[in-house]
Design brief:
The protein is an alpha/beta fold. The chain has 24 helices and 23 strands. Helix 17 packs across helix 18.
């Protein structure tokens, strides 16, 4: 007799909170390593696939060459004009970060489009023939929409090649000789490696967008130097693209600066012509007055009064000039031609120089910066349409900024108007002070003051006009080419690096996939998971061991015989089987020093040294489903009890798939079925085994209705009589969930052991199995976990714990 397991209370689940909590437990390093070990096949497979793909791409990818050129942003125009042209002259064109602005202009559609026009090879997309073999390419001057066809098929022979296209006759030419296809003409320099190929003519905008996306511009930190690079499979083409791009961009900068200077010159000339007209009128008026009045000596008389009036008049003229200028700016802001009005507006602001309003200057620079940002979004390889949310957002900001600038200019115009009225009032007051002065002298003073004011404005405008002419004559921009691309460098990644990257990526994806699969796996994976899900004590963890050769054919010692009536009868063994005759699954007998045998002895010890000393004689060993290892656990548990000196009976109560006769290598009949069918004890149903003190009753003949056999009164009687003859009776029963046999026997037995297989038994299925056993008031002693990846401590001779991972032997 053995005691019951300690503290195995009945527990019922209201829902599944424990299952949810168990799935949220974070993984520790040891558990992750166990997962990787279990899923090693998946990890190696993914790694092999990733390495193969990486190897294929590494071997088939064409080499990549990068050409790099260098440019610098300078103020050469001011240096050439000896400082006469101030930096403020170009202020409207510059943003808060001129380097980023120039990079955006560098990759704009206008600049890149000129590069495509200079290098028509960029408009070709080739397949099967390297672009470097295409020579003497000439595009038709026809319009873009009339270029048809655009795709040409090439076939390469030994001495010549043929070109065909839809709707065009096939053209044949020797290598090096050009072919004229109407849309374009080109020549193939030599025979390529492929037998066939295609050439597609891209649209100019598509080619420009593709090129813009391949150009990389990076400023050097803390300087105005910009490195521009381009990558291609053709080193010569990469070099030509960079050099052409730098040249086109420099020329574009020169043209933009010249256009800015020309607009500024035209504006100043217009203002100067208007002022000269007013100055001539003032001089004629003064000359006519003096001729009529013969008054040439009024200066001394009106010196003091005229000095004050002159100052006021100068301010009036200055304010009037600013009023006209800002009125013109307001008209430009209200114009529908936004692009043209922005250029004229920039020229007006440039004409003011240092006198321009800082607020207007800042707002206009902000407007220019926003416009440049919009151009960078709508140009290049990844050009966005006007309906793009980012473009629409910038358009809205531009409209808001333009409206704010318009409101600011309107405010300035109103302020100047108020100031002009104030000055006019002061002017009237000064004029009234001269009422008593003779009219001829006052009129002369007024005319002289008017002429002086216009002359001062004319001198200022001529000075600005000279600066504008010098800036226009200086044919330089803000871009200086520091270094042209000398030759392209091979930047292709080595095959070793690509394969290594593929291996690392495969290991990462495989390991991640293994962890994800394990996380999504609802099976019980370890002891903690088992106890959390079932709320039962884990009595033992059984490692995986070698079971090969465990099902041998019966030899003469256990041969089946028939009686005289032709049916299977009760046969007795001639002699007890030896330890060599049993299955390798009986690890407690085959290898008593193994970790597996030690685990079964641990299970036996926990059952022996529990609280209830004499209440446990019949033990049912079952599992939620088949293939969980319950029969092996039952056989080894019975063996450990017998090895402890107890009289043990092992009954194979699985009348559907009996296993114990195969483990112990004894005949299956007669057995339990014959014992239940008889009135008394049937001779030969009990078998001696290779384990001293252990007897076995096999299943016997398989009945048509095993449930009726298990639930019969005869079964209760037989079980009661056998429990009196043995210290322990171990019952190997069918799984709990598929059939009701185990639940019936569990209600008769003193205790139940539930066997669960790690990584195989579903958590919810195990909970349902416990629930069914509790429904029949079965006494569940605890659970036994078959876990090949578990680690248990063993102690060396010095008392230090050493952990061993269970698993099959290498």
């Amino acid at each position: 007799m053995i005691p019951a397991a300690a503290g195995a209370p009945h527990h019922r689940w209201s829902n599944e909170p424990e299952e949810a909590d168990a799935s949220l437990v974070p993984l520790d390093l040891r558990e992750i390593l166990a997962i990787l070990r279990r899923r090693i096949a998946l990890i190696l497979g993914v790694t092999a696939v990733a390495a193969g793909i990486a190897t294929y791409f590494a071997l088939t990818a064409p080499p990549r060459y990068q050409a790099v050129g260098t440019m610098r942003l300078t103020d050469t125009r001011r240096q050439l004009t000896s400082g006469l042209v101030d930096a403020a002259d170009n202020a409207p064109r510059m943003s808060s970060d001129p380097v980023l602005t120039e990079i955006a202009v560098l990759t704009s559609r206008s600049v890149v489009g000129h590069v495509v026009d200079s290098l028509p090879i960029l408009r070709l997309r080739t397949t099967g023939v390297p672009a470097a073999l295409v020579r003497d390419l000439v595009l038709s001057p026809s319009s873009e929409d009339s270029l048809s066809p655009r795709t040409f098929t090439l076939a390469f022979g030994d001495v010549n090649y043929t070109v065909s296209a839809k709707g065009k006759p096939t053209v044949r030419a020797a290598y090096g000789e050009p072919v004229d296809l109407g849309t374009l003409s080109f020549a193939i320099a030599r025979k390529p490696a492929e037998r066939k190929g295609t050439i597609t003519l891209l649209r100019r905008d598509d080619a420009a967008a593709k090129l813009a996306g391949s150009i990389k511009a990076k400023p050097r930190e803390g300087t105005d130097v910009i490195d521009v690079s381009y990558t291609s499979s053709d080193p010569v083409l990469a070099q030509h693209v960079i050099n052409t791009l730098l040249s086109v961009f420099q020329h574009s900068s020169v043209e933009a600066a010249a256009e800015q200077a020309r607009l500024r010159r035209q504006f100043i000339e217009g203002q100067l012509r208007q002022n000269d007209s007013l100055l001539s009128a003032a001089r004629l008026a003064l000359s006519g007055f003096r001729s009529r009045e013969q008054s040439y000596s009024a200066k001394d008389k009106f010196t003091a009064e005229r000095s004050d009036l002159s100052g006021i008049q100068a301010k009036v003229e200055e304010v009037d000039a600013q009023y006209r200028l800002y009125t013109s700016m307001l008209a430009q802001l209200q114009s529908s031609d936004i692009r043209g009005s922005d250029q004229r507006l920039g020229a007006m602001i440039s004409a003011q120089g240092a006198a321009a309003s800082p607020i207007v200057m800042d707002m206009f620079m902000q407007l220019q910066k926003l416009q440049n940002s919009r151009d960078s979004l709508t140009t290049g390889r990844w050009a966005s349409a006007s309906t793009n949310p980012d473009v629409q957002r910038i358009d809205a900001i531009i409209a808001t900024t333009r409206q704010k600038l318009k409101q600011t200019v309107q405010t300035i115009v109103s302020t100047l108007d108020e100031r002009k009225r104030s000055l006019n009032q002061l002017k009237e007051q000064s004029t009234q002070a001269l009422v008593q002065i003779p009219g001829t002298d006052a009129e002369e003073a007024r005319l002289v003051e008017r002429e002086s004011a216009y002359q001062k404005i004319a001198d200022q405008l001529r000075d600005e006009l000279q600066k504008a002419r010098l800036a226009e004559a200086a044919e330089v921009g803000q871009v200086e080419i520091v270094d042209l691309a000398s030759r392209a460098h091979n930047i292709s990644t080595s095959v070793t690096q690509v394969v290594l990257f593929g291996v690392l990526l495969g290991l990462f994806l495989g390991s991640g996939g293994a962890v994800v699969i394990e996380h999504l796996d609802t099976s019980i994976r370890g002891r903690d998971d088992l106890e959390t899900a079932l709320q039962l004590p884990g009595l033992a963890i059984i490692p995986k061991f070698d079971v090969k050769g465990g099902r041998k054919q019966l030899n003469g010692n256990g041969a089946k015989q028939k009686n005289g009536n032709g049916r299977r009868g009760a046969t007795l063994q001639v002699k007890p089987p030896s330890a060599q005759d049993v299955s390798n699954a009986l690890i407690t007998l085959k290898d008593g020093r193994s970790l597996g045998a030690e685990a079964y002895r641990t299970l036996r010890t926990k059952l022996l040294f529990s609280r209830a000393i004499s209440s446990l004689k019949t033990i049912v060993v079952t599992s939620p489903f088949a293939q969980d290892g319950k029969s092996t656990v039952a056989a080894n548990l019975a063996t450990t009890f017998a090895q402890h000196g107890m009289r043990v009976l092992l009954m194979d109560c699985d009348l559907r798939r009996p296993t114990q006769h195969e483990i112990f290598h004894v005949p299956c009949e007669p057995g339990l079925t014959e014992l239940i069918a008889g009135d008394g004890m049937v001779a030969g149903t009990g078998r001696h085994t290779a384990v001293p003190g252990l007897s076995l009753i096999p299943a016997g003949a398989l009945p048509p209705d095993p449930v009726e056999v298990m639930g019969s009164a005869r079964m209760r009687e037989v079980l009661a009589r056998l429990s009196e003859s043995f210290d322990v009776v171990v019952l190997d029963t069918p799984p709990v969930l598929p059939v009701a046999d185990s639940a019936i026997l569990a209600s008769m037995a003193d205790g139940v052991l539930l066997v669960v297989r790690a990584g195989h038994t579903d958590r919810r299925a195990a909970q349902l199995a416990v629930q069914q056993l509790q429904d029949v008031d079965a006494r569940i002693l605890g659970s036994v976990l078959n876990d090949p990846s578990a680690q248990v401590p063993r102690y060396d001779e010095y008392g230090y714990a050493t952990y061993y991972a269970y698993g099959p032997k290498a």
